[in-house]
Write a structure and sequence with these properties.
The chain is α+β, with helices and mostly antiparallel strands. The protein contains 14 helices and 14 strands. The longest helix is centred in the middle third of the chain and has 22 residues, at 168-189. The protein is globular and about 60 Å long. The mean pLDDT is 94.
Length: 402
């Protein structure tokens, strides 16, 4: 694609009180191409615009689509393994409960290792070293159905795991941190990851000074794959949360900006006159005066095909009560962070500065709210510092946001 500095024209979307004046919400119009979102979005809590983050967002949005840049191959997992290649098999990923997959009318494709599917070249890194191998095409591309509508999707689409940076190492670090943050949010929401209070940094206090919203920060460093700040912002009616890697000012700002971004969307969805309701976003239901948007069964959960549908859940009073209960459940203790032993990486950009990372041991925030394999949940509950499998972890209520 052309140099982002030549094509990107960031437009700031301003949000008046109660939002802090330091909340920066930028949109960049993207070139028209299959699988590429119309806009790249950058959010931050900062006095000045971070031009490097804009460049990274533009490249991440562009290269997370299929532009013919990836080595692809159609085969079965069995055939690839017989050749001695490392294979990230859909059958071993715990992103779907086998019991739910076996239900009549289940909408996703089979995870059969004997079925032919499309693969892309990837690299596996683990305790025994690195190896070249193959990842399912559908796990490497952000919107695989756009370019390959006939390719069966054996797993729910995922938002996390994409990263861009000034170097290949920086891009991979950002992608890995995205995976860690999503995992921590899910483990916190379901009670597997205990939380402790966290004070805002001096920089964050200054940036938040004119906000008319309640801010709560939580420290997640037990039962997770890395240190994560959780931020909750509350306008007195709507409560949204976000995560950022680390406990320093940068991690806190990222978590707060993610929560603020979702609050802007939730407030718009709470307005029956909002243009969001006219867009026909998959899974977003018409405005309800009683705000009871949380689905009551598995079929209702499957409508949550877009991040906006997950944000709409935050409007439900029952979900707000659950979020507040999780925020108030403080359990201080010594840090106990584990590390993922296996990661898979696809170089989405030829220079390696945009990548997709999949970590089999990490719990994603899946769109569609499919139940995870109980074995993956149980493995997370065995991490150092984690709580045993809770009722919330067994129920797996859809995460209210992203």
């Amino acid at each position: 694609m052309p140099d982002a500095s030549l094509t990107a024209r960031p437009v700031r979307i301003r949000h008046p009180a109660p939002f802090p004046s330091s909340f920066r919400h930028l949109q960049v119009a993207m070139p028209d191409a299959t699988g590429v979102d119309a806009h790249a979005v950058v959010v931050d809590l900062a006095r000045e615009v971070d031009h490097a983050s804009i460049d990274a967002a533009v490249r991440r949005h562009w290269w997370s689509a299929d532009h013919g840049q990836l080595e692809q191959r159609r085969a079965s997992a069995h055939a690839l393994a017989a050749e001695g290649a490392a294979v990230l098999r859909p059958s071993v990923l715990g992103w779907v409960d086998p019991a739910e997959r076996a239900e009549p009318g289940f909408p996703l494709g089979a995870a059969d290792d004997g079925a032919e599917r499309l693969w892309v070249r990837a690299r596996r890194d683990g305790p025994t070293g690195s190896a070249e191998g193959w990842m399912p095409y559908t796990a490497a591309i952000a919107r695989p159905a756009d370019a390959r509508p006939d390719e069966p999707l054996a797993h729910p689409p995922l938002l996390g795991g994409f990263g861009a940076g000034a170097s290949a190492a920086h891009a991979r670090r950002n992608a890995e941190r995205s995976v860690v943050v999503d995992d921590a949010l899910w483990c916190w929401w379901t009670g597997l990851a205990p939380a402790a209070s966290l004070d805002p940094s001096g920089e964050v206090r200054e940036l938040w000074a004119d906000a008319e919203l309640d801010l709560t920060l939580r420290r997640l460093d037990r039962g997770v794959l890395g240190p994560v700040t959780l931020a909750a912002v509350d306008d007195g009616r709507i409560l949204t949360v976000g995560g950022g890697y680390g406990f320093d000012a940068s991690g806190q700002r990222a978590a707060i900006a993610r929560a603020l971004w979702q609050l802007t969307i939730a407030r718009s969805l709470d307005d029956p006159r909002s243009t969001l309701h006219a867009l026909g976003v998959p899974g977003v239901v018409p405005h309800r005066a009683d705000r009871r948007y949380a689905p009551g069964d598995a079929h209702g959960r499957r409508r949550l095909l877009d991040p906006l549908a997950h944000v709409q859940l935050a409007l439900d009073p029952r979900v707000r009560t659950a979020l507040r209960g999780r925020l108030d459940d403080l359990r201080p203790g010594p840090a106990a962070v584990s590390r993922a032993t296996e990661t898979w990486t696809v170089d989405l950009a030829r220079d390696g500065r945009v990548v997709r990372v999949v970590t089999p041991a990490a719990i994603p925030l899946p769109l569609g709210a499919f139940r995870l394999d109980p074995a993956l949940v149980a493995a997370a509950a065995r991490r150092p510092g984690a709580n045993p499998v809770t009722a919330a972890a067994a129920a797996q209520a859809p995460f209210p946001g992203w």
